[in-house]
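[Structure tokenization] protein backbone as discrete codes
[Encoding] learned vocabulary of local backbone shapes
[Protein] chain in single-letter code, fold in tokens
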Amino acid sequence: MKEAQESLRLLSRLILQITKSTKRVKCRIKQFLHTQGIHLPKRTEMSHWSGRFIDWLKNLEFEDNNGRYYLDELIDSLEKKAKKTWAFETNKKNYKRK
């Protein structure tokens, strides 16, 4: 039983680490857009970090390929972290049911 509790504790810590890392990526994206002179849409137009917002980010055009590549890498990182968090949360819920 102690082993099961420790495993659940480790999973919870991992989720927390990924969540913090996700926040950092979001800040990097916002900072990058700010340095490029790109203003975020108002919250009334679209909620930030929704699928629609991510699509908006993916469709932004840049004068050089480096900016596009950098933003694409950040978006890719963000999407991977979201999938991991969802998978870990699902695993955690299933684990608690046992």
The longest helix spans residues 2-35. The two ends are 12 Å apart (CA to CA). Helices lie at 2-35, 51-58, 65-97.
